[in-house]
Amino acid sequence: xxxxxxxxxxxxxxxxxxxxxxxxxxxxxxxxxxxxxxxxxxxxxxxxxxxxxxxxxxxxxxxxxxxxxxxxxxxxxxxxxxxxxxxxxxxxxxxxxxxxxxxxxxxxxxxxxxxxxxxxxxxxxxxxxxxxxxxxxxxxxxxxxxxxxxxxxxxxxxxxxxxxxxxxxxxxxxxxxxxxxxxxxxxxxxxxxxxxxxxxxxxxxxxxxxxxxxxxxxxxxxxxxxxxxxxxxxxxxxxxxxxxxxxxxxxxxxxxxxxxxxxxxxxxxxxxxxxxxxxxxxxxxxxxxxxxxxxxxxxxxxxxxxxxxxx
Amino acid sequence: xxxxxxxxxxxxxxxxxxxxxxxxxxxxxxxxxxxxxxxxxxxxxxxxxxxxxxxxxxxxxxxxxxxxxxxxxxxxxxxxxxxxxxxxxxxxxxxxxxxxxxxxxxxxxxxxxxxxxxxxxxxxxxxxxxxxxxxxxxxxxxxxxxxxxxxxxxxxxxxxxxxxxxxxxxxxxxxxxxxxxxxxxxxxxxxxxxxxxxxxxxxxxxxxxxxxxxxxxxxxxxxxxxxxxxxxxxxxxxxxxxxxxxxxxxxxxxxxxxxxxxxxxxxxxxxxxxxxxxxxxxxxxxxxxxxxxxxxxxxxxxxxxxxxxxx
Lengths: 311, 311
Prior knowledge:
Chains A, B: It is an enzyme of class 3 (hydrolase). 2 copies of one chain form a homodimer. Chain A is of the alpha/beta class.
């Protein structure tokens, strides 16, 4: 099978371990690498071994690098600082977080500036909303609130809330679920936006913890509505990437550690896909008969690309 | 149509407003009335008008009264006190709460006494579990806990937890979701029990708030598992009622304000069903073409039974 007129090694129709030959082919056939962060670049706050060398190698080959994360806890600015603190030189423009995607979704849909956004989530969402010119309620501000049980007491919600954005929230509480439910159920036309629906994720390097999917499912249950999802695997973020970098998705490779978000996102948008086993997916999960999401290639971690290219 | 040899008025094949004639027929044809509490007996902590008279009338006609509530916040003992505080003389034996049902489910399934139960929920669940001889973790004890974000920090969970019970929890937090998820995902054979899946309920008399369905959905999302439901509309509680009172379900009438729990529970177990409009269901919801759960009868509130019988 040939691509761009050059002879290619056997291209995987089903996941294949990355080899020296396919690594070279992959690098030659794409112009941009899209990376998930948690489980690919770092675990919690710990850099994964060999990542700086891998990114440096790909940059030196002239590849565009883009970081696409479902984690909504930080804004793009804060992510750039996290990269820097780990010794990685990545600019804000190279980062696409689901917090940013939520703000862009509202902007693209001409969300009125006089409407407010209620947030179940952390600073990242609030910061991106404010950068986009929107006014937020909830989020970190409501972390210590509770519902009063006295007779006649009720939570008065703001009728000008026109969107509820739900993302990962380590300080989620009953009050926030109640407030979000009131807005979605009672404010006509109120949007319900999920940054993503990941079941689990790495908050620290040692253990998987509930992801945004936990909070999103809770609000789905109380509102009996389904959200618009802006993070992976929804193709929403790809629209920006394509416009920003003017690269066709067939010339991109999505690298991630999750089948149901990263690899599905890559496949949904026409990218090549590479699964790394340094995060939540094990080889046995990949090869389990119940799995029906198959990347083009898989490899142990990002650094193995460098090793394979140098062989 | 005749029942028990006596001539009956037209029996509803589709919901019919309760009339003098059908009220008399209903009272004559059943031996026990099963009542939901929230929206039928009270709203939050406020008694619904005319309830004492209605219960008194049915008792004076020799009817057995049973109170079947999905609300797991209280134990049966605490519910008896609540009835008393509202001026209603109801004994513990007449009360079946979903907190009690959860404990009975474990007992019937020979849950080992050396295994522990992790609770997302309030005192009612913990009390019923302890009355049944089980040891609990979580619940009110974990209300102020949070997940630490330091590198290398992790939540150590108890490997002897053999069941997670999830009910309504006004002090739910991320730590509880995380702990419950760890138990269900990592302890082999760990049961996942939901007291109920109500989307909303009355915590106070003024406003509907998220129900246990909110917390249950969150744990379903993180564990990618479905729970055993012991509350309405699951028929689990009916087994006790039938054994305790030795009354055939065809001689029972389930009275409730919710179509998807109370009325469905009655129908699933072969009871007659009466919807009261004093709670969460409006006449327009009942008659909406999208509704496919139809009680035998409906009426405005419990007191209207008295009025119709006296006509």
